[in-house]
């Protein structure tokens, strides 16, 4: 009866969490990483490794699944997040199955509940990233490894490779786990394989395990060579990896807790691995397998840092440690409590996960990007204000908001406004400022708070008018109709212009058959030795998905260093495609707030 009760409590919890994730997939504003994924890989339809932008942000499986939804249903966030969302039931199913070998019902329930309520982890099932997908497939791989150890069946081995391949396609940071599985199964086949399955198991191992691993390794090494394994820090596994999981999962930076969790994880994993060895590796459970992965990934991170100077994984890159730790700890408690019955009460520590989730429930932001959400409401408010103005309005903020703002330009399918990056010396020139209280510059003296959304993002409006003194204007209209890579629209060495210009105004008409149009307006200055001193971009694909003759008219603050000798504004036609551009006007102003 208790097992049935546990199953029903788990099922109810999973249903409630799934409903919560469905709502979050609709209400939570897009994050910077999601916007980067959208522009680099979804909108461009270029996500196949070696044939797209090289970056660790390319979660190939996520892009592969999202792209057809984008083409069919459009760029609404729900459709971009759907592949991860629909994998949560699979994750929950494996979370329950993997805990069924825990003998104590008292230990089994908190362990299974913790797996589906770890707050930082489950959020990724409502984001357009690869992490949610990878967690579901990782648990699937563990489940079939457990089955294969017992059965030595080629079918179970094949399912292992299917699930771990999908895991790595969604999240390359699990390559160490892939390597451990490869080594473990090789040893099992060598020393423990059943004779009647021997040949077919070796064929499956080579074709579906070894060969895919070689290709994945080559790709990972190429990324390392390009310096793309950049995320994280080199300050130590506990200080970087473990502490970051506490930071986002439990809102604490306590090194004491980080060390305690590390020691518990070490003791638990070593104990279960020792128990696995005592059974001569003929019998396993999910906890023993998770223990191997938990300890192996920790040691692998340390070795990679020591031997190849790879940073220790941090926050979202390290989040796969959470399900491994929960499984390891739950089975460890169950293992020890067979001798010391009262020890099973230590499983109460896992209750911290659902409690933390309840404490951090929200429908307005993600824990990894608390200060960078750009909501539809904030975007719509500014556009309503823009429609009331006869001149182009400037909105600015932290640079990590610009891609999310660009996503809304594309989603809204209207002629948007490029989001300007804050430069402290031009801060007062923006008509509106978008920011979170945690990183807002003090603006009360010059700006009024005019809007606040559910994400706690605020929009401020400048109190005083801005006096614009013209210092440059284009002599005549420019026209380009070609596939040239570069076209200058402003190129000046005029010292007076460079010293006084702090606002750029551009009005252009654009048409091209290419969708999206990968052309950028580059704003730059350089010194006498041609070193870049200032660099700003306005990607046209962040304004419109397609260009068929629309007019873009915007103003943008510029902050040219005093050492600048040359100031250039030009078009960069990155893909060298046919495009027709009419430059109606380019103006430079010196702006000053009216006292």
Automatic annotation (TrEMBL):
Protein name per its UniProtKB record: Glycosyltransferase RgtA/B/C/D-like domain-containing protein
Alphabetized UniProt keyword annotations: Membrane, Transmembrane, Transmembrane helix
Protein origin, superkingdom: Bacteria
Organism: Cryomorpha ignava
Transmembrane segments annotated in the record for this chain: 9-30, 77-94, 106-125, 131-149, 158-190, 202-221, 256-276, 283-305, 317-333, 345-372
Keyword Ubl conjugation: no
Keyword set includes Cell membrane: no
Residues in coiled coil: none
């Amino acid at each position: 009866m208790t097992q049935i009760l546990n199953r029903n409590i788990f099922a109810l919890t999973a249903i409630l969490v799934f409903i919560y994730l469905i709502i979050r997939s609709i209400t939570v504003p897009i994050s910077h990483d999601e916007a980067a994924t959208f522009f680099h890989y979804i909108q461009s339809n270029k996500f196949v490794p070696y044939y797209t932008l090289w970056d660790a942000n390319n979660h190939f499986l996520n892009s592969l699944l999202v792209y057809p939804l984008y083409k069919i249903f459009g760029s609404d966030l729900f459709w971009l997040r759907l592949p991860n969302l629909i994998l949560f039931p699979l994750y929950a199913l494996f979370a329950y199955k993997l805990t069924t070998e825990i003998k104590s019902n008292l230990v089994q329930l908190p362990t299974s509940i913790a797996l589906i309520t770890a707050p930082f982890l489950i959020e990724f099932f409502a984001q357009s990233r690869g992490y949610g997908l990878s967690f579901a497939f990782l648990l699937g791989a563990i489940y079939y490894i457990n089955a294969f150890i017992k059965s030595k069946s080629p079918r179970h081995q094949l399912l292992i490779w299917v699930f771990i391949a999908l895991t790595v396609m969604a999240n390359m940071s699990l390559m160490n786990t892939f390597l451990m599985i490869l080594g473990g199964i090789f040893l099992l086949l060598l020393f423990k394989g059943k004779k009647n399955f021997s040949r077919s198991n070796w064929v499956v191992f080579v074709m579906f395990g070894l060969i895919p691993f070689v290709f994945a390794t080559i790709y990972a090494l190429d990324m390392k060579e390009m310096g793309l394994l950049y995320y994280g820090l080199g300050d130590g596994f506990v200080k970087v990896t473990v502490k970051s999981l506490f930071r986002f999962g439990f809102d604490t930076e306590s090194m004491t807790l980080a060390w305690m969790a590390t020691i518990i994880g070490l003791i638990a994993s070593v104990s279960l691995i020792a128990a696995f060895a005592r059974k001569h590796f003929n019998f396993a459970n999910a906890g023993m397998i998770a223990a191997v992965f938990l300890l192996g990934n920790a040691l692998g991170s340390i070795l990679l840092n020591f031997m190849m100077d790879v940073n220790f994984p941090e926050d979202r890159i390290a989040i796969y440690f959470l399900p491994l730790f929960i499984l390891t700890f739950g089975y460890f408690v169950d293992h020890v409590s067979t001798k010391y019955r009262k020890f099973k009460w230590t499983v109460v520590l896992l209750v911290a996960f659902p409690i933390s989730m309840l404490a951090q429930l929200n429908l307005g932001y993600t824990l990894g990007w608390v200060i960078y959400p750009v909501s539809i409401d904030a975007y719509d408010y500014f556009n309503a204000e823009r429609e009331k103005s006869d001149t182009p309005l400037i909105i600015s903020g932290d640079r990590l908001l610009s891609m999310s703002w660009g996503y809304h330009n594309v989603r809204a399918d209207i002629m948007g406004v490029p989001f300007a990056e804050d430069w402290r010396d031009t801060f007062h020139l923006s008509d509106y400022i978008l920011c979170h209280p945690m990183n807002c510059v003090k603006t009360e003296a010059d700006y009024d708070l005019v809007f606040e959304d559910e994400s706690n993002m605020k929009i401020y409006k400048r109190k005083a008018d801005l006096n614009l003194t013209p210092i440059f204007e284009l002599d005549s209209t420019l026209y380009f109709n070609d596939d040239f890579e570069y076209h200058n629209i402003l190129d000046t060495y005029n010292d007076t212009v460079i010293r006084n210009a702090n606002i750029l105004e551009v009005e252009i008409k654009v048409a091209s058959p290419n969708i999206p149009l990968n052309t950028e307006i580059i704003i730059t200055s350089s010194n006498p030795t041609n070193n870049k001193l200032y660099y700003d971009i306005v990607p046209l694909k962040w304004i419109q998905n397609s260009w068929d003759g629309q007019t873009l008219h915007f103003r943008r603050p510029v902050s040219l260093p005093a050492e600048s000798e040359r100031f250039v504004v030009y078009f960069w036609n990155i893909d060298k495609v046919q495009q027709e551009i009419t430059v109606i006007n380019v103006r430079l102003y010196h702006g000053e707030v009216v006292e």
